[in-house]
Design brief:
Layout (H helix, E strand, L loop, with lengths): L14 E2 L3 E3 L5 E3 L3 E3 L4 E3 L4 E2 L4 E3 L15 H8 L9 E3 L3 E3 L4 E2 L3 E13 L5 E13 L2 E3 L3 E3 L4 E2 L3 E2 L4 E2 L4 E2 L4 E2 L4 E2 L4 E2 L4 E2 L3 E4 L4 E5 L19 H6 L11
Parallel strand pairs: 3-6, 4-7, 5-8, 6-9, 7-10, 8-13, 9-14, 10-15, 13-16, 14-17, 15-18, 16-19, 17-20, 18-21, 19-22, 20-23
Antiparallel strand pairs: 1-2, 2-3, 11-12, 23-24
């Protein structure tokens, strides 16, 4: 009989199949998913990234310049510290990304101070100060138990828990989807729109067309279980008839 220590030596390695990888935290990632800038993407656990999903984690806000250091000793200590990677896209638990979903972090135009050199009439060089416009990316934050249907494009600022985005929908730059709302198939949520919690939006551009009923998520045409619970969807991901199935 082997010693007890041999049974608890190492954590389990990520399991692999022909087309899917399952991590130690239960994330199911298709080998055909495209993840750019993985160091800037965080998965909360038990997420599903289906084939042809594209996450643009490489579109990230540049880190701020380090502050000036008062002494040589402090600069030596600071140089030894590694900067933390900046999060570009963050997913909570049980986030289901159907095939051909594109996630991009939102951006906005900001004014930054700029300096330029100019030549005076006497031939001297002088420095001019002004403002320069530039594009700056912000994190895309997605809560837990969120379902995004096939062929959706999402560039929202934030998405709350228990949100359903049906197939073919577009969530434009800096939009905010509150908890428990639903975006109907093919809808376009315009830039900067704030969708209230518990409502249904639809149209191009999207507008409020109803409210999410009590106990929603029950029925053959619904996603997940009651209240939008997506644990059963996660269990069936990659299997015949489930999300991401490529049979």
């Amino acid at each position: 009989m082997p010693p007890a220590s041999s049974t608890t030596s190492k954590p389990p390695a990520p399991s692999t199949t022909s087309t899917w990888v399952e991590t130690e935290t239960g994330n199911k990632v298709s080998r055909r998913a495209q993840l750019h800038g993985t160091q800037h993407i965080t998965l909360g656990g038990r997420c599903v990234l289906s084939p042809s999903v594209c996450i643009r984690g490489d579109l990230v806000r540049p880190p701020p310049p380090p502050p000036p250091l008062p002494s040589t000793t402090s600069s030596t200590n600071t140089n030894n510290k590694k900067p933390h990677p900046i999060t570009s896209v963050s997913l909570g638990k049980y986030v289901i990304l159907s095939p051909h979903v594109l996630l991009k972090p939102p951006l906005r135009v900001v004014n930054i101070k700029a300096q330029s050199l100019s030549t005076t009439s006497s031939g001297e060089r002088e420095r001019e100060k002004g403002l320069q416009q530039t594009l700056q990316y912000h994190p895309l934050l997605i809560g837990s138990h969120v379902f995004i249907g096939p062929h959706c494009t999402v560039q929202a600022a934030s998405i709350g828990d228990h949100v359903v985005i049906e197939s073919g929908a577009v969530v434009c730059n800096m939009a905010i989807l509150k908890e428990g709302c639903r975006v109907l198939r093919g809808s376009v949520v315009p830039e900067g729109m704030v969708v209230p919690p518990g409502v249904v939006v639809g149209g191009r551009p999207a507008r409020v067309v109803g409210e999410v009923g009590v106990g929603w998520g029950v029925g053959e045409d619904e996603v997940g279980g009651e209240g939008g619970d997506l644990r059963d969807v996660w269990r069936g991901a990659g299997k015949e008839g489930g999300v991401g199935w490529e049979g």
